[in-house]
Structures are given as structure tokens and as C-alpha cells.
Amino acid sequence: MKAILLVLDGVADRPVRELDYRTPLEVAHTPNLDEFARLGINGILDPIAPGIRAGSDTSHLSILGYDPYEVYTGRGPFEAAGVGIELKEGDIALRANFATVDEKGIIRDRRAGRISEGTSELARALNKIEIEGVEIIFKESVAHRAVLVLRGKNLSYKVSDSDPHEIGRPIKKIIPLDNSFEAKRTAEILNEFSKQARNILEKHEINKRRILEGKPPANAILLRGAGKTPKLEKFKLNSACLATTAIINGIGRLVGMEVVQTKREYGDRVKQALEILKRKEFILMNIKEADEAGHDRDYNKKIKIIEEIDEAVESLRDFITENYLIVLADHTTPVSVGDHTGDTVPVLICGPEVRRDGVSHFDERSCVSGGLGRIRGRDIMPILFDLLGKSEKFGA
Fold first, then answer.
1. Long-range contacts of 196-201 (CB under 8 A, 24+ apart)
2. pTM of the model
3. Counting beta carbons within 10 angstroms of the beta carbon of residue 274, is it exposed (0 to 12), middle (13 to 18) or buried (19 or more)?
4. What is the rounded CA–CA span in Å between residue 33 and residue 201?
5. Distances 295 to 70, 166, 167, 170, 290 between C-alpha atoms, Å
6. Is the dihedral of CA 8, 13, 19, 21 positive or negative?
7. Nearest to 242 by CA among 96, 60, 72
8. Which residues pair with 145 in a beta bridge?
9. Which helix (H) or strand (E) holds 3?
10. 291 CB-near residues (< 8 Å, 6+ apart)
């Protein structure tokens, strides 16, 4: 038997006033997800713990069976691994955003209009930045996302973010988070990088062209999530990771999964997963787009994406007759908030030997009455390993 863990990134929501206080999942027409719920056991899940606002990185670590409080040093190393940068001992990695600031340095768009073209040219220009005693490695990722790696001696990941996570505010000065020489030095380097990056980006032809086209220029860099490579045990199953974002691919790579370049269309991704499972036991499949709709505070877009995903997963109906499917969200991204919150998320598990619980709809409210009850992210893998016959008995 094999298994798919389908993570609908940020799909969970809070009641939306304009939807008569229902969530996008409740409003969306989802006959296939509802059928999986009917054929399975359901519940609600705290990705980490009640009330904890999980990031996509910490929630995925938890769901895969790792304790983020023990292994997590920051987002940057996962982003770096996701774009193919192999960190060396002493390297510090950070997640970067191409962003738009005005002439006063006030952030007008944290994602530079979700820029999707020209970022490789911008990255090449930023790689020319020279700061004494450190090597700068800057690599573009998907859309507005990028990675910054500092390579050198006497560096520390104990530094703050420059990203205020809000528009209408200036870029924050990075400060050391402890009194060490290394942290102070690293903060100084990052602030100097940000200063030089802005000067380079302001003059770059890509941004001059974007302004002429009426698009927000990618004229600043926001930094967050500094970290060093975490020490992670290899995942216990022969697995693959299928995701569109560097951070999830990075997690997959660092826990020993094969990272596969994913298809664009949802239906093609599902078919790709089924093909990969001919040679693998387990697939981590992350679908990101509902989370982006939540961040954009667009409930109509979120509903549309949910329905498109539901149509795509119809081809998994035959799969669950002999294998296992887990569907869940990694966190809640309410359209009313535009960011992650600590609410529970719905979860379902279906397959040949799952006890059905009578739930007939996959959403935040219906799953409350399911047989799984309220569990945590770290409970998912023990449940799956038990169903797959791969767990060990505890006790005599």
C-alpha cells in the first residue's frame, strides 16, 4: 500500500461575512473532496498546537513528524535547499522578497506585483554586491521569492527580519538578537546588503521597463527567516515531494525525498503524482494557490481555486480503494486577515481499512464531528504508519 499526503496550503478560513458567515470551503462545490470525507475518517487539526500561528515550514515539519521546536532554525535554509543551494557549515540563509518601495522608502507592495519575469537578471545584478569578509549568494525562486546566502566566518542566524510584513511602513533595520560579535556582524552585513541592493535595483533596466509598463518596480529586497541548516533525520518512507514553492521542496530535499519538478495544471499534478507512485511509497503534494488567495484577501478567487482542485482530484477515487489519501491544510489563511492564523484546519484520511465516521462534507465545520477528533500535526505520521503496517508496537 502507498500514500499521498495532499496539503491544500492555507485553504482553511474563518467565516466570511459576505458569504453569509460561511468559509470558502463551505461555499465551494466540492463533490470529490466530500466523497473522500464520506469514505474516510475526519477531524480538525492544530498544525503545531492550539493558537500557534504556523508558518508553512514549521507546519510541514510537524505534519511530517518532526518537532519544529527542536529542529527549526529559520526559514532561509529550506528556501535555499529548494532552489538548489547546498549550504556549507557556517552559512546563513534568508528568505528574500522582491518588493516595491516609494521615494521615501515606504513599502507599497511586499511582492512587487507578484513579479514573475526578469528576476534572474535582477538576481545576477545583486550577486555582484561586494562586502568585505563575506561571499554573497543571491538566487531567484518562484515569482517574487528569492534566497540570500551569506558565506564566510563569524556569522550568526540570530538576527531580526527587515520585512515588517505590512505595507505602508519602512523596511526595518536588522538588529542582532543576542550580544554576540557574530550576530552584530551579521546584522551589519545584511543592512549593508539591503542598502546596496536598493541602489542597484533602482537603476536596473528591468525596473525602468516595469515603470514604463505601469507595473510596480522590484526596487527593494525584504529579508526574513535567517537560519542555518537544520539537522533532520531522513524520512522513513521512500518518498517524493511535489510542490511549486522552494520552501516545501527544500523541506522535502532536506529530509531525503526526491524533489520532482511539478506540472502547472492541477489535474496534471495529480496524474504526475500517480505516475511517481509506481516507484515510490509516499508523496508529499503541496498545492499553494488557495493560500495566495487568502493572502490577497480574495474569497471569490479562493472558492474558484478550491473547485478547480476538487475537479482535479477526481482521478484519485480509484487510488483510495487500495491505498491511503490524507487531505489537510497546513494552516489557516483567512481572507479577513490576509495572513496565517492559529485556527484549526480540517483533515481527512481515507483508504481501504479506515473507519468511516459519517461526515459527508470536507470543511472546517463539518470535520469537527469526525472520528479523528482534534489532533495535532505531529499525530499524522504515526496514524499513517499504523495504517500502512509500518509502525512498531509500544510495549509487550
1. 196/129, 196/131, 197/126, 197/129, 197/221, 198/101, 200/125, 200/126, 200/128, 200/129, 201/122, 201/125, 201/126
2. 0.90
3. middle
4. 45
5. 28, 12, 13, 20, 9
6. positive
7. 60
8. 97
9. strand 3-8
10. 9, 10, 11, 56, 333
Catalogue all structural domains in the chain, each as residue range(s) with its CATH number: 3-72+232-387 (3.40.720.10), 79-227 (no CATH)
CA dist 287 and 272 (Å) reads 13
Grid cell, residue 150, equals 551569506
- 9-58 pLDDT, tens per residue? 999 999 999 999 999 999 999 999 999 999 999 999 999 999 999 999 99
Strand duo 345-350 + 40-46: pairing:
antiparallel
Alpha carbon distance 364, 343 (integer Å): 10
CA 132 to chain centre: 33
Distance CA 68, CA 52 (A): 12
- Please state the φ and ψ torsions of residue 37, each to the nearest 5 degrees: -65, -45
For 338, the 3-state DSSP assignment is coil
Q: How far is 133 from 274, CA to CA, in rounded Å?
A: 48
